[in-house]
Amino acid sequence: MKNEVIVIGGGLSGSEAAWQLAQQNIQVKLYEMRPVQPTGAHVTEDLAELVCSNSLGSNQPDRASGVLKNELRRFNSLLVECAEETAIPAGAALAVDREGFARRVTERISAHPNIELIREEVKEIPSTPVILASGPLTSDSLSKSIAALSGDEHLFFFDAISPIVRAESINMDIAFRASRYDKSEQEEGDYINCPFTKDEYYAFLNELRTAERIELHSFEESIKTGVKAGQFFEGCLPVEIIAERGDESLAYGPMRPVGLRDPRTGHRPHAVAQLRQDNLAGSLYNIVGFQTNLKFPEQRRVLRMIPGLENAEFERYGQMHRNTFVASPKLLRPTLQHIERDDLFLAGQITGVEGYMGNIATGLLAGINMARLIQNKEPFTLPQETMLGALCHYITHASLKDFQPMKANFGIFQPIDLGKKVSKRDKGQAYADRAMQSLETYLKEHS
Predict the structure, then answer these.
(1) Spatial separation of the C-alpha atoms in residues 223 and 390, rounded to whole Å
(2) Contact 269/145 with Cβ under 8 angstroms?
């Protein structure tokens, strides 16, 4: 097989896939259509730009996201390395300077002698070895090519991103720094918290529910598949949609105040809006869990009702964008190969994995497996006891009836019997230990 691979898409998965191939001395042509062809959600031309949150999830080894990160570290993931180099304070989570992270990835990829970065839209799937990592914002032309190859319609959903405010505009006479359940009294927490009284919460809730929203018809027209307005991904619901599900749905959801006390009163607030640092300079903060589809003037009006944000200056408003993923249970093998083409791999959110780490992980596996294919080695089918193996098994074996993107979580693991009742943390650690042991055993047997 020719020692050259085309990777379509310079996002998280495509960048990681290209790096893994290049590290195996395989020539890579990495195609990224930005800035020639914009997406409507990205704002830079850098590779691996984070469109939504700047958090890559928990970094704790006994959490599902932490297990996946440790597996990626075992494979020398470029993007995990870049994330750690551009990390900013976020409690137990791994959050990054959004611009710094993308810039670091772009520099590393561009400097690799085995990678040629091409700024051009790919409109059809090549017949040569290719990794399709075009992401949830795949262009219409390439989407048609994918549909023609698969013979099946895509699945679609609408996704949303959170607003970002300037730190200097936050009223710290009302807002306070703390992390949930932070037991340290010596250091400030990594989050800025805007506390609500019960009356403030209900006044905010009423305005949030009745505020004007952006119509989704333009998205529907571009998709042309009859998807219904309001078909949102459950893992990333707009805050106004959550508000419609019950008076306390926000207070028990993204605005839960557990583990927090308002220093002005000494009591736990009725609800709290948390803000997480978004860049290394600490000049920008995103409102955690506040992805929204409200019209921009309405966002400005309603979000300024949050105590401490009455004079908020917005660097970016929340917005909706289309996310696309394929029917992986019918189209992909656990190796991430297409069922009808050994030399066609899919990676990233287009496969039905959710979350930044899942995107990076599938890009890594697709890159490694393509390299093994070219080297006449059997591609890896990782054990289901590993987080990456469990994710790949899920997206290729799930029921199509209710198939939705899945992120790393212990619920997709093979159950573990510890023989006694243990704490959630101890069970998580047991899963983590088993995952790493299983991965090491598998690699020893197959490498």
Answers:
(1) 31
(2) no
Of 238, 224, 56, nearest to 158 by C-alpha is 238
Is residue 315's pLDDT more than 90? no
pLDDT attached to residue 157: 65
Q: DSSP letter at 410?
A: G
pLDDT: which is higher, 140 or 19:
19
Res 225 pLDDT > 50: no
pLDDT at 226 over 80: no
Coil/strand/helix, residue 81? helix
- Look up residue 240 and give its two tokens: 């106004």
Which DSSP string do the residues of 185-222 spell out, in sequence order?
SSS--SEEEEEE-HHHHHHHHHHHHHS-B--SHHHHHH
Mean pLDDT lowest for which of 137-151, 157-171, 259-273, 389-403?
137-151
Whole-angstrom distance, CA of residue 382 vs CA of residue 398: 17
Residue 319: pLDDT band with limits 50, 70, 90: confident
Compute the mean pLDDT over every residue in the chain, rounded to the nearest whole number.
Answer: 88
CA 365 – CA 193 distance, rounded (Å): 38
Query: Residue 199: exposed, middle, or buried by beta-carbon count in 10 A (0-12, 13-18, 19+)?
Result: exposed
58, 65 contact by CB (below 8 A): yes
pLDDT at 51: 79
Q: What is the pLDDT of residue 37?
A: 74
Cα dist from 326 to 132, 150, 181, 295, 364, whole Å: 11, 9, 39, 30, 19
H/E element, 394? helix 387-397
pLDDT tens digits for range 101-131: 999 999 999 999 999 999 998 988 999 999 9
Encode burial over 382-406: b for 16+ CB neighbours within 10 A, e otherwise: bbbbbbbbbbbbbbbebeeeebebb
The reported pTM is 0.75
Domains of the chain are 4-154+326-446 (3.50.50.60), 161-322 (2.40.30.260)
Q: Which residues contact 327 (CB under 8 A, 6 or more apart)?
A: 150, 152, 153, 154, 155, 400, 403
Neighbour-count burial of 217, counting CB atoms closer than 10 A to its CB (0-12 exposed, 13-18 middle, 19+ buried): exposed
- Whose tokens are 């591609």? That residue is 379
CA 318 to chain centre: 16
Query: Which amino acid type is present at position 18?
Result: A
Helices (H), 266-355: 296-303, 328-331
Diameter of the chain by CA atoms? 69
| Dihedrals phi, psi of 42, to nearest 5 degrees | -80, 150
